[in-house]
Amino acid sequence: MIELKDVLYKKGDFLLNTIHHIFKENKIHAILGPSGSGKTILLELITGLIKPQKGKIYFKDQDITKLSPQNRQIAYLPQDNVLFPHLSVMENILFPLNITKSQSNFNVSEIIEKLQIKHLINRSIHNLSGGEIQRIALARSIVAGKKVLLLDEPTASIHHVLKNEFLFFLKDIQKEYELTIIMVTHDIDAAFSVADEINFLIYGNWYPTHENGLFNFIPTHYEIARFMGIKNILEGYYSDKYSIFCPALNTNLLLNTASSPFDNNKNLYFAIKPEDIRIVLPDKFKEYQNVPNKLSCVVKKIYRQYHYYNLQVNPINTGVKLEVLFPITKTSKINLSENSEIEIVLKPEYLFILS
Questions:
Q1: Inter-residue contact 72 to 49 (CB < 8 Å)
Q2: What is the pTM assigned to this prediction?
Q3: Across-strand partners of 313?
């Protein structure tokens, strides 16, 4: 539906590197990345507020690169979601129709009902919550008949308690009105909650992923792993097709499958998520006696989170620090304390290579 064909944009020292991507119709697309990566610039390119130095932008196979924003069938909700302060909620919702003196293709009352803002329609926009403002802005875009919505950090101003409720609304509205939504965000949980497809934009570089890999997502690039907060990233090289030698750990680590292509001279990064590192419980010592990738460690720090203990452990005789998440429900089975010794297992099926 929307195709970016070799789009490049440069301003000052910032470069939005060449992007070639197709956003499919009737899907929610999330673009994840840290602040300063060019996510807002990408939305402004699609909506026509700025023009690329190179490349083309297509909407339903029509070249819209040089079209003005008002001539594109695209609604843009910026992060600050500007509503008109002198208008009521209802007047804000109907504003696009009043400007164009047109009728909505949708039932306005039904949209207001579905977004649960009926009790707000006669109010001033002052003193509304972030979630209410977001829903009003969504209603205004849908009423205007736009089938493509661009959302800039839609959960940024919403209290975390209400965030999930807003995301459920977004998913329901998208399905009900067959919308194509492109949302940019640094909120990993929000993206994985609602998106049909997730891609990454990190400091101007585009990292595409696949829509069928979101359930148990494994990052394939170093920058994605860093952005997602994975700290257990180590350097090594292939010692054979099925294992990596890690100098920092001074050991070979078995992989689950043969590496392809195999290059025993190639340095690489590999990683494991903290929740995928197994602590060997005392009643499992015999079971884990001969398993591969077992390391003896000293617990250096313990931080309590909601459902987990976040442990920082140091494999003995190394300078490596690994992060391990351990369920609080299992703490009765092991004595965890700072400076205690434990054994951990980096299961081969959970090790992944980063490019």
A1: no
A2: 0.86
A3: 299, 322
How high is the pLDDT of residue 110? 85
Angle between helices 89-100 and 130-143 (to 10 degrees): 20
Dihedrals phi, psi of 113, to nearest 5 degrees: -65, -45
Domain with 289 in it: what CATH number?
2.40.50.100
65 in the same domain as 36:
yes
Order of strands across the sheet that contains 205-207: 74-77, 148-152, 180-185, 28-32, 197-202, 205-207
- DSSP code per residue over 55-72: EEEEETTEE-TT--GGGS
| Sequence-ordered list of residues with C-beta below 8 angstroms from that of 331, at least 6 positions apart, any chain | 309
| Lookup: tokens for 256 | 């689950």
Condensed to tens digits (0 to 9), the pLDDT of residues 286-324 reads: 888 889 999 999 999 999 988 899 999 999 999 999 999
- Assess contact for 285 and 335: CB atoms under 8 A: no
Q: Which DSSP state fits 218? A: -
Residues 191 and 157 in one domain: yes
Strands 28-32, 54-59: pairing kind = unpaired
Max Cα-Cα span within the chain = 77
- 3-state SS class at 105: coil
Q: For residue 16, what are the domain limits?
A: 2-217
- What's the confidence (pLDDT) of residue 237? 92
Those residues of the chain that have pLDDT short of 50 are: none
pLDDT score at 324: 96
Question: Using one digit for the tens of pLDDT, what is the confidence trace for 139-154?
Answer: 888 888 788 999 999 8
**Could you give the CA distance from residue 281 to residue 112 in angstroms, rounded to a whole number?**
54
Whether the Cβ atoms of residue 148 and residue 180 lie closer than 8 Å to each other:
yes
Q: Where are the beta strands (DSSP E) in 141-293?
A: 148-152, 180-185, 197-202, 205-207, 233-240, 243-246, 251-254, 267-271, 278-279
